[in-house]
Amino acid sequence: MGKRTTSALYILAVGLLAGCAAEGGEQVAEVAEPEAPAFHFASGTLELGDFDPDTLGDDLFDPCTEISAEEYAAAGMTGVESLEIATGYRNPDTNSCRADELRPKVSRMVTATKMNEEMASGKEGVVLAHPDSVVDGLFTQMDPAQDPFLCVAQVDTTRGSIGVGIAERGAERGRNDTCRLATENLERLFGVR
Fold first, then answer.
1. CB atoms < 10 A from the CB of 142, how many?
2. Residue 23 — pLDDT band, cuts 50, 70, 90?
3. What is the pTM for the complete model shown?
């Protein structure tokens, strides 16, 4: 048999087999894999999940450069600026940005850190809570002894924890539910597509 004949028979056999499989058999629906919960930014997808702080290395998510100004604006945040650039201080375990205040004396920042939920729960004085949220695994943390007017809503991702911190100053102290505000801000970032 020549190459042409073999090729033609192969194509015919594949066509017949495909026809037989579809004929009279049950319809097989394709099952789509469920999409892993994740933040979706133009720079890429940031999947929720566990990470090992000791092996993360330089792959810590950077919310200051990996989330665009347009994406922040879609989440209701403007004036986002790297704290490293603003202050000249660099912490190798944290990438932080500040954003415009929610209102006078109520500040917010976005942070990625190598401190996961397990580490946070082991810190003396830190109070963790797990509010209902559209962000699976979201937790809030406060350290009342250090700053009772600061709350961070945070979630572990495969590239470190990402969180939004809300702090009150001056006359605003004690007037806001900082954990609720932090949770809402992180949820808005999660909803950006």
1. 20
2. very low
3. 0.80
